[in-house]
Amino acid sequence: MEFDNKIIKVEILRKKEKVSLTFKELNNLNINLSDSSVEDIKELFNNIFDSIVDENKLIVFELVDEKNDLFHEVAVDIINRLNLEIEQSKPELVKIIQFNSQ
Fold first, then answer.
1. What's the rounded Cα separation, in Å, for the pair 39 and 78?
2. What confidence tens digit (pLDDT) does each residue in 15-60 have?
3. Rounded CA gap, 86 and 78, in Å?
4. What angle do CA 15, 16, 17 make, to 5 degrees?
């Protein structure tokens, strides 16, 4: 089974007290880069999984950010890891989608 790709743009939202990654196309989800909590990461993974299974499209994240600061570097690392994780999960995702379509 082949997947089409769905490109999702990710932005860094910089506020005075909080910096976050914003995934507008995934239920407007925000990942707080100023906090070490993992709850928002869990929610992100659930949304990624649901979107891939529902739409039969692999997600590829692209960072949209012009600044070159520490938060940019952290965001690039997170996006690269997410994209790698999705690509490595492709065989399992195919099995889940095939099972759901029976």
1. 15
2. 988 999 999 999 999 999 887 778 888 899 999 999 999 999 999 9
3. 12
4. 95
- Greater confidence (73 vs 35) lies with 73
At 20, list the tokens. 């976050």
Please give the distance of CA 13 from its chain centroid, rounded to a whole number. Answer: 15
Q: What number of residues does the chain have?
A: 102
- Identify the burial level of 83 via C-beta atoms within 10 angstroms of its C-beta, where 0-12 means exposed, 13-18 middle and 19 or more buried: middle
Which helix (H) or strand (E) covers residue 66, if one does?
Answer: none
- Provide the pLDDT for residue 36: 72
- Domain spans, the chain: 4-100
Average pLDDT over residues 84-95: 93
Give φ, ψ of 62 to 5 degrees: -130, 130
- Only one residue has tokens 């492709």, namely 90
Strand segments (E) across 1-102: 4-14, 19-23, 29-32, 57-64
CA angle 86, 88, 92 (to 5 degrees): 85
